[in-house]
Amino acid sequence: MASPPKSSFLDASDVEFLAQLESHAKFKQRTHDTHYNEHMPELTARLHLNPSLPEDKTGAHHVNPANNSPIHAIYLGNSHLERLETSGSKTQLHALYETGAALNAGVGGDKNENVIWRLTEGLYSILHTTNNNNNINEIKVWLLVSGTNNIHTKHGIRPRDAYTWKLLLQACLRIAPRSRVLALDVGFRNDVDDVVVEAGNRVLEGVVREVNGEVRAWEGRGGRGGNGKKGKEGEDREGGDRVVWVECRHLITRAMLDDHVHLNESGYEVLDRVVAPLVMRELGLEREKE
């Protein structure tokens, strides 16, 4: 009997899916430098890969020697994540990657296409291989923070922006089919009308529903998660959704911005109160009491 036609991104081969990513990837120098001089060295060190990937010697090389913990959470996206090192340094989210189970793969200024470029430059392949072959580093949760740099004063989230954001969700779930993706909304900005941002968020929220529908259909057909284990829809997951839309924008006021878009310490306190408990729950940890 012939196999049913492929109807889900989870049914595509890695070659097919990587080709999709590569067709939407975009190079940026800062993206390149941070990826090769910070993220990849830390990733290979924490995964104990031998030999480690070659480094690009053109930029600063930073690996946090204090954190040798297995990786169970990935922060993927833009400067809101990267700035956890500075304005967000007092948060639980920061502590989770400083000495805990998270890897912070945030780069300032990154659009969806730049994040996709980093996935095609080794991040996807390494995490996918490790997640499927090494239970020690099984990815349980992603924090995706991307999209704000795709919004412009003259336009909001366009169809191509929604599609590249969808590719990011799909990449996370292909790397770790049993994981949860926490997709953070796009915050309000001082240089973009709130109506534009709000409309963009409605589009992205619709993408979340679409991806969750595909995953449920895939699991209903007997799709299998990482390590050959059948996806466990609903087990320890509210509603069984692999992607959770997380809203924070209405809680962050203009006074919580450092500039037109970046959060100050107060903004990160609010973000942390909303997001950190969700990450901790997926990791099976109780958030430290303040």
TrEMBL record:
It comes from the Eukaryota. Keywords: Hydrolase. The keyword Hydrolase applies. One of its GO terms (molecular function) is hydrolase activity. InterPro entries: SGNH_hydro_sf (IPR036514). This is SGNH hydrolase. It comes from Stemphylium lycopersici (Tomato gray leaf spot disease fungus). The lineage of its organism: Eukaryota, Fungi, Dikarya, Ascomycota, Pezizomycotina.
